[in-house]
Amino acid sequence: MNFKKGNNLWDRAVKNIPGGNMLLSKNKNLFSPDYWPSYYSKAKGAYVWDLDGNKYLDFSSNGVGACSLGHANENVDNSVIKAIKNGVMSTLNCPNEVYLAEYLISLHSWSNMVRFARSGGEANAIAIRIARCFTNRQKIAICGYHGWHDWYLAANLSTKDNLKDHLLEGLGSKGVPDLLADTVIPLRYNNMEDLKLIKDNKDIAAVKMEVVRSTTPLKGYLEEIKDICEEKKILLIFDECTSGFRESFGGIHLKYNIYPDMCMLGKALGNGYAISAVLGKKDVMQSACETFISSTFWTEAVGPAAALATLEEMKEKESWRKLPKLGRKIKDIWIMNAKKYNIPITINGIDALPTFNFDIYEAAGFKTIFTQKMLEEGFLASTLFYPTTAHEDEHIKKYSDACDKVFKNISEVLEKNISPSSICRGDYCKPSFKRLN
User: Fold this and answer.
1) Domain total of the chain
2) 283: pLDDT confidence band, cut at 50, 70 and 90?
3) Which of the listed residues 135, 176, 267, 374 has the most CB atoms within 10 Å of its CB?
4) CA-to-CA distance for 162 and 125, rounded, in angstroms?
């Protein structure tokens, strides 16, 4: 398979862009450093075309979770085109931000007010500022991945191991002010013992957490956190930038009937267009007026137009019912082939966000082989899958057939007890996020 144009452009990129690209999750080194197309020329539905004209079924992250309706959904795009024709920026405000706020509040009866941003990291930073302002406290307890800003990476100032279970192992925090040391307290998901850390600390403004991560919450876990927060007057903040709209029409916390003080929504909210939201209770959210939270491009018209159209598409398709079913089918395919070819794997993630790991020697090598062989079968694929409503039964069947071939390939290497480097093209993939994906 030829990636000449993509490889040439990547070589230019690393000379001019630190790290080669803007988002770690799209860096070719996470997939196959020497055999990955890197750039797309077109994306539509469940398909992606690279710069060299190769066409793939996208069975990977589908826009890193942004495109739950598939790439370039026609109704969403038409709504955006209409907004563009009317002007995306003005001296006056965009009316759709009011309509979008009302829509999101109607889906979350516990909430009363909303602030919008354009990325998940921004939304998380907004929520932290509001929480500290409202409580007049400084420290934040975290459980999950919440962006790249100083407040979050400060967790690794005292030790580089604090974020190893939330983001990446050995992650550096150079550039984050030392004064922020000990302002962030990491909690291990589903670990009841760690909850003592928030019970015994009097300066915690908020507990910020992903509602679900690689597993669902243990019985009573979310309830216990909620009770502690209410008793200690700590704000409970759910980061649903990834999990939102996957298994419920809104935040996944609606499935568990545990309601926070604030919640962030992003990624799937705009189906590829930049929009994120911070929902909250009125008394909490009003604190945004007591500090400075403002940005020019939070007022552009594309994001709200995309979000409103996306919500209507989700509602019509009942996407939150379809996505888990698709994800379950993919999990079953992995399990079936792993059993058939005697390959030890571990399945993780909720059904709408499934992932697996190879439990074998040189696992990174076999993960790289999986990606490379799936490319040759016509798939953008790694060991995770974010399903979309554009994935049809015929796509699942083709994926299943391709997986059968690739797992068989891997089993042949295992049977010979040789290094995966014997068939891997180039270097192994580098470590990725330890989180929902």
Assistant:
1) 2
2) very high
3) 267
4) 19
Q: Is 50 exposed, middle or buried (0-12, 13-18, 19+ CB in 10 A)?
A: buried
pLDDT in tens, 72-95: 999 999 999 999 999 999 999 999
Tell me, yes or no, whether 436 lies in a domain.
Answer: no
For the sheet with 379-381, list strands across it. 40-44, 47-50, 55-59, 379-381
Beta bridge partners of 263: 238, 279
Q: How far apart are CA 99 and CA 347, in angstroms?
A: 40
pLDDT at 82: 98
**Average pLDDT over all residues of the chain:** 96
DSSP 310-354: HHHHHHHHTHHHHHHHHHHHHHHHHHHHHHHTT--EEEES-TTS-
* Same domain as 256, residue 130: yes
pLDDT value at 392 more than 70: yes
Q: Whole-structure pTM over 0.90, yes or no?
A: yes
Q: Does residue 32 fall inside a structural domain?
A: yes
Give me the CATH number covering residue 255: 3.40.640.10
User: Cα 268 vs. chain centroid, distance in angstroms?
Assistant: 9
With beta carbons less than 8 A apart as the criterion, state whether 311 and 236 touch.
no
Exposed/middle/buried for residue 257 (C-beta within 10 Å: 0-12, 13-18, 19+): exposed
Q: How many CA atoms lie within 13 A of 284 on its CB side?
A: 29
